[in-house]
Amino acid sequence: MRVLWFGFVAGPLLGALWAVVAVVTVAVAVAFATGEAVRPGIGMAVLAGALAGLAAVVRGARWLTMLVALAITASLAVAGAGVLRFGPEVAPRLEAVSVLLAAAAIAGPVARVLEGVGFRAITRHAFEAAVIRFLTGFGYVFFTAIVVIPFYVMIMTSLKSQQALLQNPLDFTLELGRGADLFRSYRELLTDYDFGRYLWTSFVVSVLTVLVTLAFSIPGAYAVARLRFRGRALFSRSILLIYMVPMIVLALPIYIGFSMAGLRNTVFGIVLIYPVTTIPVALYMLQGYFRGLPAEVEEAGLMDGLGRLAVIWKITLPLSLPALASVSLYVFMIAWNEFLLAFMLLDDPSKFTLTRGIASLNSSEIPRQHLMAGAVIATVPIMALFLGLERFMTRGLAAGAVKG
Amino acid sequence: MSDTTEPAPIQPPPAATPPRGRGRLARREARLAWRLLLPTLFAVSLAVVVPLLAIFWISVKPVELADLRPPAPVVRESLRGSGEEMRIQYRLRNSSRDREIRGVVLTDTLPGVLRLRGEPEAPCTVEGREITCDFGDIEGGFRASVEVPVAGDEDEEVLEAAAEGSAPVVTGQASHVLTDGTFTLANFARIFDGEAFWRVLGVTLFYTFFGTAGALLVGLFAALLLDRSFRGQGILRGLYLFPYVAPVIAVAFTWVTLFDPFSGSANALLLRMGVTGEAINFFGERPLALIMVTLFEVWRYFPLSFLFILARMQSIDTDMYEAADMDGASPFQKFRYLSLPQLTGILSVLFLLRFIWTFNKFDDIFLLTGGNAGTRVLTVNVYEQAFALSNIGAGAAVAVVIFLCLVLFSAFFFRVMSREEGL
C-alpha cells in the first residue's frame, strides 16, 4: 500500500483508471445517441490518463492538466490510434466532437481528483481523499448510466419503426421526418388496443384501493398505537408477519375461490383483493406515525369532552396528513404496479388493468415498440406522481416498506 | 398501660391498594380497540388466513386444474328423422372422465305440437307431457343416447324448433374433489422427486442470497455518494429511485428488449465494441440467465437499501466525526471504524427483510425468463406446477414448502430484530 503514497505513482494510476471510465462512458453515450460505430481504445486511454495524471501531480495546475490531456488525445487521434475508434463510415465532424468530449471527460475530473496531491511522498489523508474523489466520480457515472439507459431505451424504442429497429438496434436518433407518425405506437395502442380503457381501469382500481385501505387501516393503526388491550404486542407483531406472506402462496386459493364465486374477470373482485395486500403495510406505516404523535394533545381533547372517535377525526387525522399522503401514495403505487393478481384473475380484455394489458402485448405477433409504448404509458403517470410528490414518496418508502 | 378500659385501637385507614383487575375505563378502551380492529381482522382473516389454511388442504388433495369445475351431466337434445321415423334424441355424457355423478335425472316437456308415437326407450318414461329419464349413477366417461318416438303434423322445421325450444333439465350430484374425503401425499412425493426440486432450491438460494447482498452493497455505495449536500442531490436521489418506483412489468420488458439476442441494443453495443464476436442470448443461456435475473434484482432493489441506509447515515451524530478528525483519522478509517459499526444494525435488519422478500419474489423472474434457462425459483415453480402443468395440488405443495421456509426465516428474523431494534 505504501508504494501508492507517492504522487508520481498515485497520480498516473488514478488518472489512467479515470481515463478508462471516461472513455467507455463517452463511447457508450455516443453510440447510444447516434447509433454510429464507436468503441473505446482502452490502451490509449490508459496512456492519456496516466500522462494527464502525471501532469496534474507535477504542477497541480488545472489548466496544465487540461492542456496535456487535450494535446495527447488530439495527437493520438491524429496519429490514428485514438482513445476512441470509429467505424469507416463515421462523419469526421462527429469524430472530432467525440474526441474533444473524451478529452474533456478525462482532463477535468483527473485534475479535480488529484487536487492537493503532490509529486513526491503524500500523506495517507491526501491519498485516500483522492481515491474517494475518484470513487465518487465513478459512482455518479455508474449509477446514472444504469438508471438512465434502460429508461432511455424504453422511450426511444417506443418511437421507432419496426424496420429501423431491426436494421440498427443501436440507432436511437429520432426520425423527425416522420412527424406525428413518431407516436404511431401510442396512437395504435390507444385506439386499436383499448389502452385508454386500461388506463382508466387501473386508475379507478388504484384510487379505490387507496380509499378502502385507509378506511380499514386508520382505525386499526390507531388502536394498535394508542389503545391498551390484551394482545396488542402480539397483534403488532403479526401485522409484520402477515406482511411477509408471499402473494404467490395466497394466489392459488384466491384463484380457486374467485373462480367458484364468479369473481374472476371482474373489476369488483380486483378491488376486493388489492386492499388486502396493502392493509398490513399501511397499518404498519401508520401505527409507527401515530406513536410518534404527542399523546398530550389527544388527552387534552378527551378532557374537553370529545369522544375517542371525535379525537381521531378532529385531532389525530389532521395532524397526520403528511403520513396519510405518504401511505396513500405508496398504496397507489403498489396497486398501480400490481401484476400477479391481475394476471391470474383477469382473462377478459375488456376488464384488463394496465399491467395486465401490457402482459398481453408480449407476443411475437405484436411489434416490440408497442410493448415499449405500453411500458411508457404505465410508467409515466406513476413517475409524474412520484416526481411531483417526491418528498412524501421517499418518506413513505422509508417508513414502512422494505417490501417490494 | 394498666388501664382497665383499653381504648379501641385506632383503625389505620384502609391501605391504598391499586385496584385489582381491569377497571371500567380500561375495559371500555379495550372494547373500542377491538371494535376498531374488527374490520381489519375480518378482511385479513378472510383473505390471508383462510387461503393459508386452504393451501395446506389443497396440497394433500389430488386436484388438477380441470377438476376445479365440478363434474356435471351434459345433455344435448335433437329431433331426428321424419314422418314415421321421427324421434327426439337425448345424448347425455359425464363432463368428467373419471368421477361419477349420482342420481342423474333428465326431465323435459313434450311441446304441444308433438305427440308420443310409441314406447320411449328405457330408462325414460312419459307421463302426460312430462318426459323423465332416470339414469341413476353414471360413472366417469359415461355416454348414452336415448330416443323418444314422436309424431307431429306441422312443418318439420316448426317441429324441430318446438322440440329444441324446451330445454331439458338434468340434475345430478357429484362430490367435489376439493371437499370430499380423498387425500394423497402424491403431490409432495412428486415435487420432492428427483433432483429437480433440489436444483430449484439451489437456484432460489443463489438468487435470493446474491440478489439481496448485491442490492445491499450497491445501495450502500449509492448512500455513501449521496450522503453530502450539493446542488442536484435531490434530483439524483429521485433519479436513483426510478428502478424501484416504475412498474415491474415495464422495466422487466425493457430489460428483455435491451438484452434481446437479435434486436437488443446491448448486444449491438457489445458487437460494435468488439467485446464479443457473436450475439449473446442473455436470458436464454444456462448460467448467464440466472446471473442476469440476479443483476436485475440488484438493479431494481438497490434504491430501497440506499434509502434506508441514507436515512440511518444522516442520523449519525457528526460530533463523532469531528472528534475523529481531531485525532487524525483518515477517511477510510472513519468509514471503517465509525460509520460501519453504526450501520451494522440497519444492514442486518435490511438483509434479513430483503432476504425474505427476495425469496418470495415471483413477478421479476416470471416476466424476464418465465423460469426457463435454469432460473426456476420456488415461487415460479408454484405457477409452473399449478397452471403450466395443470396440477393445482402440486402447486399448492410447493407453496406449502415456501410458507414453511418463510416461517423459519421469520422466526430467525424476529430474534435478530428484537436484539437490534434498528427498525
TrEMBL record, chain A:
Q: Which UniProt keywords apply?
A: Cell membrane, Membrane, Transmembrane, Transmembrane helix, Transport
Family in the record: Belongs to the binding-protein-dependent transport system permease family.
* Entry keyword annotation includes Ligase: no
**Transmembrane segments annotated in the record for this chain:** 41-58, 63-84, 96-114, 134-155, 198-222, 234-256, 268-290, 311-336, 371-389
What's the protein called, per UniProt?
Putative integral membrane binding protein dependent transportprotein
What InterPro entries does this protein map onto? BP-dep_ABC_trans_perm, MetI-like, MetI-like_sf
The keyword Membrane appears for this protein: yes
Membrane-protein topology = Multi-pass membrane protein
Q: Which GO terms describe its biological process?
A: transmembrane transport
**By its UniProt entry, which CDD domains does this protein fall under?**
TM_PBP2 (cd06261)
Question: Where does the protein principally reside?
Answer: membrane
Automatic annotation (TrEMBL), chain B:
Q: Where does this polypeptide localize?
A: Cell membrane
Which coarse location class applies to the principal site listed for this UniProt protein? membrane
Instruction: Give every ABC transmembrane type-1 domain span.
Output: 201-413
Q: Please indicate if the UniProt record lists Membrane as a keyword.
A: yes
Q: Topology versus the membrane, per the UniProt entry?
A: Multi-pass membrane protein
Q: Does the keyword Cell membrane apply?
A: yes
Segment Disordered: which positions?
1-23
Q: What stretches pass through the bilayer?
A: 32-58, 205-226, 238-258, 288-311, 337-357, 392-414
Q: Name one GO biological process term.
A: transmembrane transport
> Pfam families per the record?
BPD_transp_1
What are the record's GO terms for cellular component? plasma membrane
> What are the entry keywords?
Cell membrane, Membrane, Transmembrane, Transmembrane helix, Transport
The entry's family comment says:
Belongs to the binding-protein-dependent transport system permease family.
Record protein name field: Putative integral membrane binding protein dependent transportprotein
